Amino acid sequence: MAVDTLIEKIKKTNAPVVVGLDPNLRFVPKFIQDKAYAEFGETLEGAAEAIWQFNKGIIDQIVDIVPAVKPQIAMYEQFGLPGLEAFKRTVDYCHEKGMVVIGDVKRGDIGSTSTSYALAHIGRIQVGSKFYSPFDEDFATVNPYLGSDGIKPFVDVCKEEKKGIFVLVKTSNPSSGEFQDREVDGRPLYELVGEKVDEWGSDVVGAYGYSEVGAVVGATYPEMGKVLRKVMPKAFILVPGYGAQGGKAEDLAVFFNEDGLGAIVNSSRGIIAAYQKEQYASFGEEGYAKAARQAALDMIADINAYRPNANN
Length: 312
Hints:
The chain is an alpha/beta fold. The chain has a single domain, classed as TIM Barrel (Alpha-Beta Barrel), CATH 3.20.20. The chain is 44% helix and 15% strand. The strands form three sheets. Strands 1-2-3-6-7-10-11-12 form an eight-stranded parallel barrel, surrounded by seven helices. The chain has a two-stranded antiparallel ribbon with strand order 4-5. Strands 8-9 form a two-stranded antiparallel sheet. Helix 10 (222-231) links the parallel strand 10 and strand 11 (237-239). The two termini are 22 Å apart.
């Protein structure tokens, strides 16, 4: 099961951390862009080549210290079909290196449309007598706004393919409360969504007691995370918002269970663009990937300083 694989890699690295591979061109060093444009021109193909080479450099530097990556598909879609090819190359390369891939795709629809999204990202599609895994991530993020009709097709594919999903429950952005904090029958909506996550994942529980149906809960809302940790005891929580968005390591302990598991914390630009920060400026543009490695090591140490049973 995907969640068991994720847990085993977290235990092996002692790093409950996922690196968000969200490559904006302004993060990509000039020497990488120049080389890509020399080969493909200042085209979508050139841009896609640049972000792929940028990703590859970072992956090679973090593969032994970080268990998972989370490519955000919009960062690739903005470059059209060449961008999607770079997304797929990134997913495949991470798998070659033995990393878990969380596809941050935030899909959500109903019926055959939801099934199609699930098949595209975590399932297989039949073409004649053959089967193909189009994008082949290990997990996908899913929007629950359409209710169980939108989630069930994903859960069905999870069961069949032993893959996982992370359902958006309480997101890290400042305006998330406009809907997610609204009270329904005296309780905030995000709690009700959390209860559904617990229900949806009740029969896809792995060997470590965690479900293939996880949740996204922002690091910027630790008090809500503390409540949701109890509401969803078997859900693995993907925690965005650390670092650049204001989430602090000392606030993240509440997202973990007493076993030191149950959560994985994401950082995107704080790691992949670390070389642009004063703290890591000494690495220079040529050392952007080594700067990313150091930033990841610093993040791991920071989180483990507060995580329950971090060294067990």
